[in-house]
Known about the structure:
- The protein has 576 residues and is α+β, with helices and mostly antiparallel strands.
- It contains 15 helices and 21 strands.
- A 6-stranded mixed beta sheet has the order 15-19-14-18-16-17.
- α8 runs antiparallel to α10 and α13 packs parallel to α15.
- The protein is globular and about 70 Å long.
- It starts with a strand and ends with a strand.
Amino acid sequence: MNRRTTIALALTMSAGLALSACSGAKPAPGSGSGPGSGKGADTFEPVHVGKGFTGKGGNIDVLMSSDFQTLDPGNSNYVQTANVGQLYYRTLTMAKETAGKPPTIVPDLATDLGKASADGLTWTYTLKPGLKFEDGTPITSKEIKYGVERTYARDVYTQAPQELNSALADDGYKGPYSDGDFEGIDTPDDRTVVFHLKQPFAEFPALVSRSNTAPVPRAGDTKLDYTNHPVSSGPYKIKSYDRGRSMKLVRNDQWDPATDPNRPALPDTFTFSLSTAQATISRQLLADSDPTAITLDSAGGLQASDAAELDAPEVAKRTASGLLGCTDVLNFNTETIKDPQVRKAIALAIDRQAVQLQYGGNRFGQLAQSYINPSQRGYVEQHTDLDPTGRPKLAEARKLLAGKQVPKTLVYGYADATPKYKNVGTTLQQNLKQLGIDLQLRPIPSANYYTVLAGENMPDIARSGWCGGADSGSVRTTVDPNIGPSLDGRTYGFSNIPRYFDPEISREMYELRGANGSSEELGKKWATLFDRTMQDYPLVPLVRSFTNSVVGSKVRGAQVGYFFGSIDLSTVGVAR
């Protein structure tokens, strides 16, 4: 359930991924024999570099084209932050990655996945003994509660994850800075946390794997400045951080590995370069000029022109890959493009095949027909008039616009650190020109991209991505955050980029949040509501990502996280 930054949304959750196997020898990743080529799905099987490596020591260089949008676990709905965050903060439960499969929810700070009351309205967690912050002070239930409380201060933390909050009995709580103590969570002793829910929520253990439950010491809370040095509860801590330039993580000597079977913490240090051009990143990785380097950038930082080099034997053996739960979409601002028929016409006019080519073609992902995917529990077939091969339907689009008030000019916003997103805009310009619409391209600084999309300067059209099913495998974890209503059901939700709000559909979504039933049953209801929503075309599905990520020749234990969409930092090590 998390937003993808330059790619990495992904706050999202553990159904199995269905990939069909075909007989005979398996093609190399990206060989062109995957979906869309008429051959099979083996192209999208995961590849793990140096699996099983357990050696400790050394440094990992992480090359990135832009800084993290935030390092504050209480103000993050971003996949890149979740990836690096697992190194310096822990949560009650954890979404543990396995290449090519949705994550599995496992205990982290808590001793187990929680105990629900008979009526399902309370969940109780017990903390493991001996937990400490980086300064040696104990981690108690009070710091867990305070971490959650901060995320209610939406006037301060505009990108705080809200899925957990929407499930809790909050009575209009506005955060610790204005409202004091939160009655939706009890801490009867230092090791016990009790959550009170509005309605039963069967997948609650997935919700407390979100960064909301990362412990925050009240005395160390510097509000928006907390991003500069969040207090570590994990195996690493921040030694230095020069915003927009570099960051270094070193071992946290107060972390006890006996309490944490999920993080092997192999390297001694992680060094982050936060302003390297993507073209430079790809050249360095392909040439192996830094044997300890990896990247968290979208599509492994690779450019479309690099695709052929992935077949070189020396590069192929250093390429981790996997099909993700992550899908990119185009969002239509429904407050500026108000007519659903106009939105549908624009959607039909888009050449999604050409867009896929800007992503690098079939090697880098499948054309998507929906934001949700068949690996999510409760998936039902979605109905769409989009051509399944991605070809535009200009005749149908023009027919829909007959007699309509068509905007003469629209604005497409894109993250400026990623060339392919600008190239997508160029493709869209050509498509919309066929409808008599002049599409202007507006670069947005990558570090502020989703903040802009959530604010007053949201463009008419903007790309975003979401990693669906990353916390629990449920359809809800894609539908509710991306198209659902606000916490009170009166308007669109905070991460609903299209700002879509239909009085009837949104009311049904709001009521469904409190419904009883199995994950499969409720997922089908969410999927059906999403299908109805998509008849209004608030967004257009583009590509479900397959990431190839080249790593340095000394990097081991490298896997592409299904949720993270990039190398999972918690598993990597360095051969010495």
